[in-house]
Design a protein that fits this description.
single chain; mainly alpha
Length: 71
């Protein structure tokens, strides 16, 4: 099985993903989601990429002006 340390970080990741999902479902804009989570938008986009949540973005968040900036 996994070490206690690995289990801990798996749990942290699951909690982080759940927090992002809940905020995405409850807020109308990416800016508001980031503000609710206490992070900047660029960090939110990294979390969306890390947890493969792009498909969870409501259509209103994927319109012009709210897209992920080019890298």
């Amino acid at each position: 099985g996994k070490s206690k340390g690995a289990q801990f970080w798996d749990n942290v990741a699951m909690a982080e993903k759940a927090s992002v999902l809940n905020a995405l479902r409850s807020e109308a804009t990416i800016t508001r989601v980031a503000r609710k989570l206490g992070i900047v938008r660029s960090q939110l986009y990294r979390l969306i990429d890390r947890y493969e949540l792009k498909s969870m973005l409501p259509r209103r968040m994927s319109q012009k002006g709210t897209r992920h900036p080019s890298k």
